[in-house]
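Field notebook, page 318. I keep forgetting to write these up properly, so this time I am using the form the group agreed on. The chain and the ligand, trimethylamine oxide, are recorded exactly as supplied. Prediction of the bound pose follows.
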Amino acid sequence: MKIRNLAAAAAFAISAGGAAFAAEDSSDPIVIPIHNWSSQIVMSHIVGNMFESMGNNVEYVTTDSQAVYESIRLGDVALELEVWEGAFGASFREALERGGLHDAGDHDAVTREDWWYPMWTKDACPGLPDWEALNDCAHLFATPETGDQGLFLDGPVDWLKHGKERAEALDLNYVVVNAGSAAALWAHIGAAEPDRTPVLVFNWTPNFAEAVWPGEFVEFPPWEEGCDTDPAVGPNPDALHDCGNPADGYLKKAAWDGMPDKWPNAYALLKEISFNNAQIAEMAKLVDIDDYDPEEAAEIWMEENEDVWRPWMEAVGS
Ligand code: TMO
């Protein structure tokens, strides 16, 4: 409620103030894509609220997190607020090459996305986090469905396409299963917790999980540029995907090339925006631990962090 009043007040100030901006934003809605992990949904609503408070119209659409780069290129959606290097670097790069979207700057956040385990797992498999310990420990991760092989519960298919290729390229005795949702990953860890059963799941940082379950990423052969395009890169000379994801990955914003002309003021704000790890982890926590829906989480986050976002608005004259 408080935010909506602020939004109305800000919109009034803009129209009353006259020529605060060099150019006016189009009244067409700025289409913001929403995906299937909490921080992205909350962040999208936070930024959408800021756009609305500048007088813009905003529309949210749920889209596939790989196909979205094609949608931005074509102008069907205006931007993407969380381009994670590990999961989406390849799709983003391909879309950049085809043209129509651009890199709208980095967030402060440093990201990592990879195979991960809660710390109790290491008691049973002390050779971790080295990936070379995985095969000797495979039996610890076996389930009735995987037989003698270990289970790695990977993220939903639209996050990373190459978990199975990684296991094959590094000759890992694991079955890679894609979870249906992020919630299935948390349920898998939660179910293992009472008996401290070893589990291996896809996880990422910044996320709420680090505050709930201390844990570590598996240390795979370090990411090298070209590991996903050139078999010679990485320890297996005949395979792609024989490296981990970047351990200090970027988190970028991306925008449709038409955005600066169509919504110059919203675009100027997009360029200012930069969230850090703690801020993004808090967005996820409000949904995944505190159980707020993403719209409520966005309003709460904004009420608690006005000192973070207000200066970005002021920097662009709002
Ligand atoms: C795409 N994700 C941040 C869930 O790894």
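OBSERVATIONS:
- The chain is about 40% helix and 15% strand.
- The CA atoms of residues 211 and 281 lie 9 Å apart.
FOLLOW-UP: compare against the apo run.
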